[in-house]
Specification:
CATH topology of chain B: Aconitase, domain 4
Order of helices and strands of chain B: EHHEHEHEEEEHH
Structural class of chain A: alpha/beta
Helix content of chain A: 25-40%
Number of domains of chain B: 1
Strand order of the largest sheet of chain A: 13-12-20-19-14-15-18
Strand content of chain B: 15-25%
Strand order of the largest sheet of chain B: 4-3-2-1-5-6-7
CATH superfamily of the largest domain in chain A: Aconitase, domain 3
Oligomer: heterodimer
Distance between the termini of chain B: 23 Å
CATH class of chain B: Alpha Beta
Shape of chain A: globular
CATH architecture of chain B: Alpha-Beta Barrel
Chain lengths: ~450, ~190
Amino acid sequence: MGMTISEKILACHAGKPSVSPGENVWVNIDVLMTHDVCGPGTIGVFKENFGPKAKVWDPEKVVIIPDHYIFTADTKAHRNIDILRDFVREQGIKYYYDPDFIKGEGMPNPYLDPGQTSYKGVCHVALPEEGHTRPGEILLGTDSHTCTAGAFGQFATGIGNTDAGFVLGTGKLWLKVPPTMRFVFDGDLPDYLMAKDLILTIIGDIGVDGATYKAMEFSGEGVMSLNIEERMTLCNMVIEAGGKNGVIPVDDKVRTFLESKTNKPWQAFANDADVSFDFEKVYRTADLEPTVAKPHSPDNRDLARNLKDTRIDRAYIGSCTGGKLTDFLAAARILKDRTVKVPTFIVPATTQVHAEMRSTTYKDVPLEKIFLDAGCQLGPASCAACLGGPADTFGRVNEKLRCISSTNRNFPGRMGSKDAEVFLASPLTVAASAVTGQITDPRELLR
Amino acid sequence: MNQSIAGKAYVLGDNIDTDQIIPAHYLMYNPAIPEERKQFGRYALIGVPPAQAGLPIGNIPFVDQADESNTNSVFRVIIGGKNFGCGSSREHAPLALAEAGVQAVVAESYARIFYRNSVNGGYLIPFEWASGGHVEIATGEEVEILPAENMLRVIGSGKTYPLRSLGDVAPIIESGGIFNYAKQVGML
């Protein structure tokens, strides 16, 4: 029997001719990523088990990207950045992206020019920007949304501090080979749909545990017509169905993207012709409509048009899944020459996205200006309120409010208060809802 | 792993995600620092909406918050539903439960990363019901888990429920986590 892309990557890294779903294998890891929330604990596990003077297995394969608790006055959050800085210095870690504006106490003054800081922002978006994602590799990260990098045809998944501490010392980890579920989208995407609508549709169909322990592969012309950022959005949310990793076959879009990003050789894997999938479902994109996940679960699916009388108190566009340039271009299509009716928070995932919001125009107007003119509030690049975070986090939902958000989770308390209600939707739907003050199908406002 | 685990049960519903087990605004505590590590016990399960906290009645705090120095729960076994520990990969979740005194979770099913973290970090034993479904255990009831027999017994009623064998991960749990296991098999 043939192997899937995920099985081939795992076999290759286990030094075996083949592997089968359910098999446990020890694999060599290509890149280990951590950040400010899980880095200090990971470093603690590493030192406790390998000794205070131990060295990481390869300082060029460890990538540290602070992104979670950056724009806060919390002293422990700042202390955690210092722990990362000390470790980077001591170990000679090559790839570290320091929030250089955090100096001493209090709320740090954000970067003035996003092009003039070593800080990047949200790790899952910074990883490909900085050339750390490559087809055929295994990327592990101490963050569940590490699966985002499956968009580059690699095996990428989230792990905890203990596993990460183990990898820091050995460069290896045991993984169970997942069976692969395949989701095919026939037909190009109409201009009112985004990757978020596709993945919310899937999660609504299979449930928040529908892909537990499994790989989710996306293909078909609807997927391959998506740009790289939209493919990242698809893979980002496999964890919201319980998936272990997402994967999209490598094509010329990926090859072109990587040309300017990395000099390291890589190998793209394809499914064998006689492969059999654990599950397969084919969607016709023409049948799909703008989709929303209602509180308090990403699988609580409905159509935006069914919720048109649902009033909202706030809108949020940001995060690894909804704060990329493509997401802001989509929002700009709605927000240009309009005014938002509810407080609307805009948070670029990374400093690069922030710079692009200034240099990229929609109908000759820079995106940042469109948002400011519409009355939106702009925050600096970070994970920000997607996961609530410290009480002084930009955009955090601190009370019983109803928020529509382009982020990826809406379990109770995710964005702050457990009395709040979070609706998940595409940036198009979030922007349209911000303009009307109630959940709105973007087709009503697209011109 | 022949030792039994006994104590009061704390019952929760489906899809208890790691933000409910330990909300993000406590994650600035560093588990590698002992005094800060204890704080995870204090705030374990504080994100669960009150109506779902301690079923079937609800409104039962997992850790008594009135005493500010309290970092322990009176509950030793969590009874969960489907997809326990979904969401964020934060290892602070099984760590918080263990710091509060939890020795085992028995759920219908687990999210992958929580399960892995529980086992590889040696925090607690994640059991599953052998026959899926519904169990009639109320928060506060005394239960006993007999790992050698793959069995949970409710002390009051004497009722027993079969548990699924731990399978592949049993050797890792028995050795106390991935580091000890790797030493035993000669990896480290």
